[in-house]
Design brief:
Blueprint: E1 5-10, E2 13-18, H1 23-43, E3 68-71, E4 74-77, E5 81-84, E6 87-90, H2 96-114, H3 125-139, H4 143-146, H5 153-171, H6 179-185, H7 191-206, H8 212-230
Antiparallel strand pairs: 1-2, 3-4, 5-6
Helix pairs in contact: 2-3, 2-5, 3-5, 5-6, 7-8
Length: 234
């Protein structure tokens, strides 16, 4: 590949990550990538589906995000959002699109499963915890990449609202119970703390740290959760 270009492959999906100072330079490198990729595939009897190709500009600069670029013999308009390997990427890398998508998906899953769990005479709390496990798995998908976005209150609150609703169902609690309290009652770690824990564990694996580090992160998470609960006023 040309300089400042690398490929990310998974199954039958390939992403070309191109670093460039401007659109003209990006177009030049894109042309080189497409030419070399098409030649490699032709030699192996494969074909690139250009009609399924998507482009997105990732930048913090105030430039147009939807422009037309040449991809082999086609002209494709860049998108402001794109889904890759289950993660919703947006041009500003705010991950707001991913958070909203995960929230909507988790809400639907929670509502569907809750229909099987009556508050009175329904499953025990231990069985209800399966509901929280499902919701957390959806909310935290790919959080190793986007967890830093939860430092912004609006984004964190969007996921906390869904987690609180699920915790109320796990504990069969009244809606008037505060979010902090119902998380303690249902033994559910706050979503932002779990996201940061997963990110730290992932970074440790990248650094080839030993397996005991994961235990230390959980201890740190519990200390932070205890501190929040101690200072809770609502």
């Amino acid at each position: 590949m040309p300089d400042n270009v690398h490929l990310v492959g998974f199954a039958d999906d390939v992403a070309a990550v191109i670093t460039a100072r401007n659109v003209t330079e990006a177009q030049l490198r894109l042309n080189q990538v497409m030419l070399r990729t098409m030649e490699w595939m032709d030699d192996r009897g494969l074909k690139l589906a250009t009609e399924k190709t998507e482009l997105i500009i990732l930048t913090k600069q105030q430039i147009p995000l939807e422009i037309e670029m040449r991809v082999w013999n086609s002209t494709i308009k860049t998108s402001k959002e794109m889904k890759y390997l289950g993660i919703q990427l947006d041009s500003r890398m705010s991950f707001w699109a991913q958070i909203k998508h995960a929230g909507e998906k988790a809400s639907k899953a929670s509502a569907s499963l809750s229909k099987l769990m009556a508050n009175v005479g329904g499953p025990t709390e231990d069985k209800r915890k399966l509901l929280m496990t499902v919701v957390n798995a959806i909310l935290l998908y790919g959080s190793e990449v986007w967890s830093n976005a939860l430092h912004i209150n609006q984004k964190r609150n969007a996921l906390e609202k869904i987690q609180r609703t699920t915790a109320l169902r796990v504990a069969s609690a009244y809606r008037t119970v505060s979010g902090a309290a119902v998380l303690v009652i249902s033994s559910s770690i706050p979503i932002d703390l779990m996201a940061m824990e997963r990110r730290q564990a992932w970074l440790s694996r990248q650094s080839n740290e030993n397996s005991s580090v994961a235990t230390n992160y959980r201890e740190h998470t519990m200390i932070e959760w205890q501190s929040r609960w101690t200072n809770e006023t609502s």
